[in-house]
Batch of 4 targets.
Target 1
Amino acid sequence: MSDTYDVIVIGAGPAGEVAAQRVREGGLTAVIVERRLVGGECSYYACIPTKAVLRPIHAVRAAQRLQGVTGAELDVSEVLARRETWVSGRDDSGQAEWLDSAEIDLVRGEARLTGEREVRVDDRVLTARQAVIVATGTRAAIPGIPGLAEAAPWTNVEATSVDTVPSRLVVLGGGVVACEFAQIFAALGSAVIMVERGDRLLGRLDEIASEAVLEALRADGVDVRLGVQATSVGRTDGLVTVGLDDDTTITGDELLCALGRTPNSDDLGLDELDVDLADPPEWLHAVGDASGRVALTHMGKYQARAIGDLIVARATGAVDAADEERYGRFSDAAIDTATPQVVFTDPEVASVGPTFAEAKESGRNVRAVEVPMTAASGAALQADDYTGTARLLVDTDTELIIGATFIGQDAAELVHAATVAIVGEVPLPRLWHAVPSFPTMSEIWLRLLEEYGL
């Protein structure tokens, strides 16, 4: 292994892997430095294990909603076994072998930036001819609530690694992580209490999504408490006690802290080099969660593709003016205009673009067009007594879609069509000619166009 490469990538999560792959495919040499598992938190403690558990839960519920199906139930031990299959028992040898097959070197250890294009890994110094890419991700934040850290709270790491389900679980937070885990553990048999200091769940999504998920969690038996926050935490004889600012106390066998994320870039030596990842020098790039822009795996990989291609183009002198355009080859403009996201609760929430409130605040003339999902025969056939909502946000001056939200069973797959429409800037009248098959859930697009008045 060399000590000099064209590109050094710090962090072997999805964004780091894609960045290294793109520069390698462009003919440059690349090395990835990883201190933990190749594949990153997404592969072992976040996206993959949670969805591996949620899918059986959703499948059972979908079956129970259909007349003529009987006997559908969960086997908790088998659900957890399925999770372990998907995370390969947290053995990253398979992903390390992929790096080797892609001719990307792997150095294991703690990375630290010690100079321009220079990274120290323990006693070894690596030098980059072209660039260093920081893809170190984030970790769960543990706020300074008295007693919280000492109570050994769960984060997503512990929650995705459990062998047994606690009888009682307290969840601090009301975001995506909190909602998904609350539903997971409620379905697996825990009595769950959620504590959210805001006045609604999923505060970054449209209010219709917040209301739908709140109703679903409460129907699952989750005790959701809004507008309150923890003021103290203690653990005695294995039990966790949480004091709230409404002068009440709750108790659980375990406590999940889902109160935000902290960048893992805080120990890379950035301060010593007087470098800010929000405005880095030309030789340094940040992708994925480390960039501070959007904490979603798919958008991190999108960033990584753009930056990897840019580094190759600069190294080979192949930069074209068209590549610098809004949606050019080196652009990550979709982060600002068309970031899709799915909350894998039941019902699923799939959204792209701004919320209605954000769109109005931007000063645009925006109209929200909304129909029940059952307006499409495909949705009504998907489940007896199907419930859900579809909403488009339309710029009425241009008749372009700028945002969309789909709520309901199996609604996640609908969001990509909206993403394509936004990025492609397809006017609503043209969408009338994109005819969905009958009877599919995609027919909801016709109902939305009709509601708009086309």
Target 2
Amino acid sequence: MDIAGRRVVNGGMQSDSILVRESRSEAAGTAGVIAALAARFGDRMTTAAAVREAHGRGEGLRDLFAPSAVVWPGSSAEVGEILALCNAALVPVIPFGTGTSLEGQLQALNGGISVDLSRMDRVIEVNAGDMDCRVEAGVTREALNHAIRDAGLFFPLDPGANASLGGMASTRASGTNAVRYGTMREVTLGLTVVTPQGRVIRTGGRARKSAAGYDLTRLYIGSEGTLGIITELQLRLFGIPETISAASVQFASLGAAVEAVMAVMQMGISVARIELLDAVQMRACIAWSKLSGYAEAPTLFIEFHGSPAAVAEQIEQVRGVTDAFGGSAFAFAHATEDRNRMWRARHDAYHAARGLAPGKDSFTTDACVPISRLAECIAESHAEAESLGLTAPIVGHVGDGNFHMLVLFDPADADERRRADRLATSVSERAIRMGGTCTGEHGIGVHKLEAMVLEHGAGAVAVMQAVKAALDPNGIMNPGKTVPSTVFPL
């Protein structure tokens, strides 16, 4: 299948070698750009095969499509130089942060230049009084939190991986704290963006609200590098909570755990995080993270933020709800080291799940539904995985209706790969049918392109295509991602 015009070899993706296919004219254009970049950036540009391979895929889809070269800019102005050069030569550009994306956003489907922003890692300013900051796109969330900790502030979004903030904005990421603090859409006040033509623009500002013109900040958030490259971000910060406490509770069935989450949210109990791990995922985490004292049963990890009195009240409310749904082994993690141990196990869930079947490949579903449909959606998806004979552990930020299945498959087994693809597709379709979305936080990339029309309708997708054509008329920005290539009339 030809995804968004991608050149396909032997009818499918190739994962065991660098795959770059260019016509002679494209190759000549790319060679000229590489020569110019080498002259301008010196050892900050490379065509070394190992480096290109490392930039040719993320942590999700393992199929390898390596770029023709990798370059490391040090400023927005230098990013502008790179884009202007590539735009004039019609050479694709693929932005790169830390390489943790899950939907193929980093794959250079037609070769081109990978623009690695990891050296743009300055915290430019911190405004403690207004609780905001400005950072370069290569700053990671952990580095930002380290820089602002002494000011009594923290940046709450936690997608699990130590992702770059530019990458998090590009995919509209969220994570375990989203149920209380929101997503990158809510915490981003403004951006610096380099357009495909090399122009540096600023969107938004430091004000908490504005009614001035089109909301360009929200346009670029979630655009996955298809409209320009985010180089700086103005972000909201939050005060470190006076009291942080965590708890875990286990259930006899997956359905009971999900019903308990729904009740907690419908009662309006203020939790900072509420994470679900099914029995298979708990088995993986117990082995991988050396968790002791847990059964291989559906489990909720919960965290509470606030004053001592507020946290105590939240705990009692949640405990009352979980007891009503048969929750057992309710355990507290008050000490920092105990909380960190629990959340480290949750963050390592991806690697733990892959450890269930060494040698197998995987990809992750990312459905998000209205909370009232969550139990039904998870139950149907779990049953389908079992009927297809697939191992697919479930984890999720279920407080906002978002859950993931890590679908494991043997890349050498074509039938198992087809069954895995079928499961991923049906999870997306099921979520959309229930009033949800095919992606709560990972983005579209190449894996979910076919769901875009189903979710938004051909008319809305046509508008997206028009925006893409207007801002990137030469189609150089991360081509083949996010917006389907099939033309729909406005």
Target 3
Amino acid sequence: MTMMPPKPEARPDRVSLWRYMKLFRQDILSAQPARLYRAWMAEFRTPFFRSFMVNQPSLVDEVLRARPLDFPKSDRVGEGLRPLLGNSVFLTNGETWLRQRRIIDPAFEGGRLRDTFPAMWAAGEAAVARMETGEVEVEAEMSHAAADVIFRTLFSIPIENEVAAETFHQFRAYQRTQPILNAAAFVPLPRWMPRGFSAETKRTARAIRGLIAQLTAERMALIEAGDAPDDLATKIMTTTDPETGARFSTEEMVDQVAIFFLAGHETSASALGWALYLLALHPDWQDKLATEAEAALAGGMEFGVMSKLKLARDVFREALRLYPPVPMMVRETVKPERFRDRDLPVGSQVVLSPWHLHRHERVWENPDGFDPGRWATENGKQCLREAWIPFSVGARVCTGAGFAMVEGPLLLAMLLRAFRFERVEGRDPVPVAYLTVRAKDGIWLKLTRR
């Protein structure tokens, strides 16, 4: 009998606010009741605010696509991430966000993906060379590989570079100390009041930002000398806002690089780790992907191989469905709204949950099962349009979504061409959401060379 992909146990339907806060800090996913996998909408009240989870696809579309400016990002998520991300594009709203996107977006336009492809390929080859046979914790390996992709594409340096390696090391320490939400997410605190960050969280955030500032200053010097490589950092740092003519300051660039590193390596690593585990559970799909990879990659590095990696794309897409790296997004109402005959007052929190929407029992066929073939079905095609949002959608769609959908399938194909991945008995991963959806004790798989 084929095993179902692991899913956290839901909490009891009714718990106290104190118990909910405690569960939420431990893991966002298991802190939610099972009814959310069927509900179109659910309300949660605290003494300080009202929160509405929205799962109905038409309402998700209303918030993200139709009227994004009426539902800005909530500061409740930003409270937990500001020590590292500052005022990055991930956290800002309004005119500041619009200006940041006007500068950042050109670096990730279609043609740039072709330009960054050789760096992705080199990182994939390095990942294959580093991997060893036997029992391996693949989540850590995928973090290493995805961080390598980011440094090569952003700053033209491999992960072995001293500053890159130290940044990666400090970020691993940061992950272990910082939940995505802290106390300020539940209780409105005045600006002057301490946010309760641990000393280690603040130390690692300072260290990471210091290292990024060093890389940014070095790149600015190369740009001024006319010797800068044509990579993503140079593109972003030399792009002017078409409306104001201004460029990012060094401090602003540190904020943006911090989110590129967090979003660009943490999310890809999460999806790749889960994809490898899912393939270990389903050796039939794994063999099909390995066969596809062998044929597609045989000709060497060429961007055209991406059109041949159809199954790799579908497997990566299915991993993003079952284990969306960012499990929840929070928006806020700026004026009274009415959804499903309920009034949403100004300041209400609107929670959009890729985790629940991607497994919604009234939307998907076989919602908890692994089936890369679903994308060819009518249900799969409809859900892809209406209920698959790992990168968000609309105006605030992740800038690097296209980047990730090249990187993920490519690395997956390169790894499957080289290795066979098998489940380790008794070491199945338990999904938890901290910064992203990861495995509680890592993802352990047995690797053998093909």
Target 4
Amino acid sequence: MLATLIAVLTAGPAFASEGLPGATMSLWWALPFAGLLLSIATGPLLFHHTWEHHYGKIAAVWAALVVVPLAFAFGPHLATEAVLHALLTEYMPFIILLFALFTIAGGILVAGNIHGTPLTNVGLLLIGALMASVVGTTGASMIMIRPIIRANDNRPFNAHVVVFFIFLVSNIGGSLTPLGDPPLFVGFLRGVDFFWTTIHILPDTLFVGGVVLAAFLVLDIILHRREGGLPKVKDPTPDSKVRVRGLPNLPLLASVIAAILLSAYWKPGVSVSIYGVALELQNLVRDALILLLALASLAVSRKEYREANGFNWGPIAEVAKLFAAIFVCIVPVVAILQAGNEGALKPLVAMVTTASGGPNDLAYFWLTGVLSSFLDNAPTYLVFFELAGGDAQHLMTDMATTLAAISAGAVFMGANTYIGNAPNFMVYAIARQRGVNMPSFFGYMAWSGVVLIPTFILSSWIFFD
């Protein structure tokens, strides 16, 4: 409360025609955003019970500490327009897509059981990683985690399989389309072409994914051979043919992609204004179609398939509440970043700028990545997207390497901790429920430090130095 009061008192005059005056806004305006992200990072670990029951209220308080001071400092009209712009043009399409992918993927069941040999596990991880850019990291994780746990539930050493699953399926594999990971969809909403990441991040994805997959294969072969000298463990899951259930959901997923492509290429030039916020017709049609496809999935999917997947609305409800607050709290931060060297975040601008005044792609990759490891990668992506200028057309052309560095850092390094990306903790919880002896929070970071960080160092030297 004190911070927001100081932010109001130190704010300069409002310029309603130009939006929030970022050049006159102090860093106090960023404190609610920082406080919210810190709450998200520490809440599930330090005060789990309180967080589980009250995370929505906590997020709402942080959002209120932005909205109310904005209204006092710049007037209710400008504050309402700024917040509504973020919610209607960015948050709503973002959460509708996540809801649809979560719902449709939850109706697809991979049933059956196979033996988790090293080559089989590599195949399952590869399939999951490829799926991640189509159905999202959350969707692919939900579909594939239970089959891969069943395949390895008779092995004494199986925690490493889930750890690499988080690396590859829950993070790295989602780097090729806006469907794959939330930060890329945020970029798409800001004007980045749908297939831009497919083309420009593909070499980096193949390199990082290939190195991590090769490291897994070597480790799994060693552990599999070591298991040969141990007493045999009876497989708790009887052998049965692998079958994919819920096939009507597959054309629904394809239709989601079609709806997004429609909005990217169909530009009727028609818009609707809500309190000064222009909503383009193609985006409204896209969101309505995607929402209808999610509802269609609920109608055509069999209840027993969703139950077998452990499907429930808890995860998407949490994401919806937290991201509503995130998109509100980041409004003043984006305004300050848009001010560039004239804003209060000038030191951050200096860190990602070379002596000649150009962008430092290596710094963009590592700063975006390190923050994405502990904070949510979607708002982190947005912060550095704005820091690089915020003009999608300019970033996709003259600053293509910079945009690739931001995108790769946000997606890849979400794998560094359990809290870097939403599916990470979901997979961790499912694995523990199924009896996998998963590493602790810092134990997992030791795995990522040994496997991922050296890979990222080499990758950044090759592609962004």
